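so i finally got all the pieces together for this one. its two components total, 349 residues if u count the protein bits. some of the lines might not be protein, just check the labels. i wanna see the whole assembly predicted at once instead of chain by chain like last time, that was a mess tbh
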Amino acid sequence: MDENNDRGWNPYLAGALTGIVSTLSLWVSGKYFGASTTFVRTAGMIEKSIDPERVGTMAYFIKEAPKIDWQWMFVLGVFFGSLIASTTSGSFHWKALPDMWQARFGPSRSRRALAAVVGGIIAMFGARLADGCPSGHGLSGTMQMAISGFIALACFFLGGMLVARLLYGGGGKQ
Amino acid sequence: MNMLIYGLVTGILFGFLLQKGRVLRYDRQLGALLLKDMTIIKFMLSAVLVGMTGVYLLNDLGIAKLSVKATILGGVIPGGLIFGIGWGLLGYCPGTSLGAVGEGRWDALWGVVGMLIGAALYAEAYPAMKNSLLAWGDLGKLTLPQLLGVSHWLLIPLFIAGGIGLFSWFEKKGL
């Protein structure tokens, strides 16, 4: 399938509408976009089902209680929103490997799975240390002109550009 | 209960727009990191410029409050760089990973698994870092207008003008 012929919208328009949605969200519920705290809460909920006593004593789970809150539902909503947009436009398709990845690293699904799991572990550890991800710092932080948001966003890109260059050998796939 | 419904609806709208903007893709995210495809930058910066205007308008009208994260250099600099390294490997962000699954890119599920493990590991490491790394370079809840001592309404038009300049450069270069 031609990925550029999928009834997508101009990224400026989709982005500007996202800015309006984030403003309305602040107006209606007083909430800013964010995503990474939800992973902490979910990890806490899973651990709690195994060892509730231990989770009850852990400082980070006391700070970020393992419960379903506004942001948890927000992250779940992102899944459904994308599902609605892709199925109604016919651009939904099961895909095990990104094109660029496959062209560079071959058709092995386990290799991609390993990189994605390791990448996920590193990314979330960093996001929690930085106290936010591209939603919390990159969107919500910078739209408030928070210094933490600008620094975080610059560091996100610096780290990411380094790895992208290592993986795709400077020039990458042409 | 209402808050949960607001969260779900807001997320659905965000996920819908992320999918329409075609930013949920590994190839787009890596394309940005290789400085070859600026789709996600166009999307993010457009959202930020509109949101900046909206947020400060609501703030000045007394309808909503800012919620600025503290600038803790010991957390945000190493944390940001570490996030970036993981992001480059995974090719999805925490928020967009669920959206990527929503359009069928199920390799993002591995990223979700990894991110849950990463969150659990961070919870283990937190007590050790709380009084060391996370106590270093705490500048408090600082914004650019505060730092420069100017009105935010001076800076917002400058950001918009800069953004439009950058956008026209992207279009000229075909990025």
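Chain B has one domain: 1-173.
Chain B touches chain A through 125 residues (CB under 8 Å).
anyway lmk what u think
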